[in-house]
């Protein structure tokens, strides 16, 4: 099945959103007034503190690696002309993810921070290697 990704011009007021990674499952998909329910207060060393549904949360903002941008995608209903073609549209973008944990702040180099290291690592592994014929290794 083919997937067509359509990237229309996003209105300036909807372009950037704040992505939140919560330590729970919420059975809802769609926009939500997060700012009304999750009010973060800054703490020392870049920590964030908030409460959600009466539960204390500690957070840390994780910027995406250089050259990366996150996107919020919305799936469109299949077209009647080509039932194998699905279309998704970028509705918003983000440049950082706020990672939250219950009752504590995520460690500076743990969790999501490790996952965000894979993009640049994969790029380095799969990028072309320059052909340096003068520096060829001799067999031992």
What does this structure look like?
- It is a single chain.
- The chain has a single domain (2-124), classed as Lipocalin, CATH 2.40.128.
- Helix content is 16%, strand content 34%.
- The protein contains four helices and eight strands, in the order βαβαββββββαα.
- The protein has helices spanning 12-15, 34-37, 112-116, 118-126, and strands spanning 2-6, 19-21, 41-42, 47-52, 55-63, 70-75, 85-94, 96-102.
- The strands form two sheets. Strands 2-8-5-4-3 form a five-stranded mixed beta sheet. Strands 1-7-6 form a three-stranded mixed beta sheet, with no helix packed on it.
- A hairpin with a 2-residue loop joins β4 and β5 (55-63).
- 6% of the residues are buried.
In short, what is this structure?
This is Transmembrane protein 223. This protein is an alpha/beta fold.
Shape: flat
Number of discrete helical segments: 4
Strand content: 25-35%
Assign the CATH class: Mainly Beta
Query: Class by helix and strand content?
Result: alpha/beta
Order of helices and strands: EHEHEEEEEEHH
- If you consult CATH, what is the topology? Lipocalin
Number of domains: 1
Radius of gyration: 21 Å
User: Tally of extended strands?
Assistant: 8
CATH-defined architecture: Beta Barrel
Can you summarize the main beta sheet? 5 strands, mixed
| Distance between the first and last residues' Cα | 50 Å
pLDDT averaged residue by residue: 81
Low-pLDDT segments, ≥5 res: none
Q: Give the helix level as a range of percent.
A: 10-25%
Query: Strand order, biggest sheet?
Result: 2-8-5-4-3
How is the secondary structure organized here?
Layout: E1 2-6, H1 12-15, E2 19-21, H2 34-37, E3 41-42, E4 47-52, E5 55-63, E6 70-75, E7 85-94, E8 96-102, H3 112-116, H4 118-126
Region (Disordered): 59-82
GO biological process, one term: RNA catabolic process
InterPro entries: RNase_H2_suC
